[in-house]
Design brief:
Elements (H helix, E strand, L loop, with lengths): L8 H25 L29 H5 L14 H20 L5 H21 L4 H17 L12 H4 L9 H31 L6 H41 L4 H4 L2 H25 L3
Helix pairs in contact: 1-3, 1-4, 3-4, 4-5, 4-10, 5-7, 5-8, 7-8, 8-10
The chain binds zinc ion (ZN).
The site of zinc ion has 8 residues, from loops.
Length: 289
């Protein structure tokens, strides 16, 4: 393998950004088709207005939108700004994850995890659902990553591994320790969301949140471990409440859950925890030492 460390960092970030824009283009398809149970592979992309197949040269992330001046080549119907926006956001996310991970074996795993979260955020924002088609494979993926990543070398990638391998699990194989960490995180993440929904239901007599949030937090908890999961829930509830109260005041609607796709805030919270969480929880834990 060539020594990739001689590649200038800026060049690496450009590659990450371009790759992110391409994945963002794919996420556009996922966000559009998964909620209506369509295949994400066939058929090729078509104009939602006239149904004309979109040629590959009109399907280049961001650039085609600019070249076509936001109009379909065939019917001249306006193309939503959402498409290049998703591509640009995914590109920015990939640059951020590459900055966080550097050139490590965990980088592709973190990119997949962050991409799945971003897809869930967009789908929840538009349809108020978190499809099983993403959360179930997401949970499996998190467990596989938990077993595989510790053997790929480098630092202990998962935030909870150093403390877990010192306690009662000392001497256990690293994949066992890692899976126990995944289990604790998943039960904490999914469990607390389930408990929040259950409490709300008892208090108000209405169903508070779908199990989509619970399944998404199983995935997040398994991947991030318990400390970053607590941070995710904290960030999600805090930002969600602020936006929710703002929306309630503005619209006069008294029922926050009717307005609020909570998965959006949990998903963004999980991405923030992945990128910036480790120093935050480390600082917080330091206050008690
Ligand atoms: Zn068209």
């Amino acid at each position: 393998m060539p020594d990739l460390h001689v590649v200038p960092p800026v060049f690496g970030y450009v590659i990450a950004g371009v790759f992110g824009a391409i994945i963002g283009s794919f996420l556009n398809v996922v966000v559009h088709r998964v909620p209506i149970d369509e295949s994400i592979v066939f058929p090729n992309s078509r104009c939602p207005s006239c149904g004309a197949a979109i040629a590959f040269y009109d399907n280049i992330p961001v650039l085609s939108y600019i070249v076509l001046r936001a109009k379909c080549r065939h019917c001249k119907e306006h193309i939503s700004f959402r498409y290049p926006a998703v591509e640009l956001l995914t590109a920015a996310l990939f640059v951020a994850v590459a900055w966080h991970d550097g050139l490590s074996a965990a980088l592709p795993f973190d990119l997949i995890f962050a991409s799945a979260l971003l897809a869930l955020v967009f789908i929840d924002a538009e349809h108020m659902i978190l499809p099983n088609m993403i959360t179930y494979p997401g949970i499996i993926f998190a467990l596989v990553a938990r077993v595989v990543i510790p053997y790929l070398g480098g630092s202990p990638h998962f935030d909870d591994l150093p403390s877990l391998s010192q306690g009662a699990l000392a001497g256990m194989p690293i994949w066992v320790v890692s899976l126990v960490g995944a289990l604790i995180g998943a039960l904490l993440g999914g469990g607390s969301l389930w408990l929040m929904g259950w409490t709300w239901e008892k208090l108000r007599g209405i169903e508070a949140m779908g199990l989509g949030d619970v399944k998404m937090m199983f995935m997040v908890g398994a991947y991030l471990g318990w400390r970053l999961t607590i941070l995710t829930i904290f960030v999600g509830v805090f930002t969600g409440s602020i936006i929710g109260i703002f929306l309630m005041v503005r619209s006069g609607q008294r029922n926050m859950q009717m307005l609020l796709p909570f998965g959006v805030f949990l998903g963004l919270g999980a991405i923030a925890a992945l990128l910036f969480g480790a120093p935050v929880v480390e600082w917080y834990a330091g206050q008690f030492r």
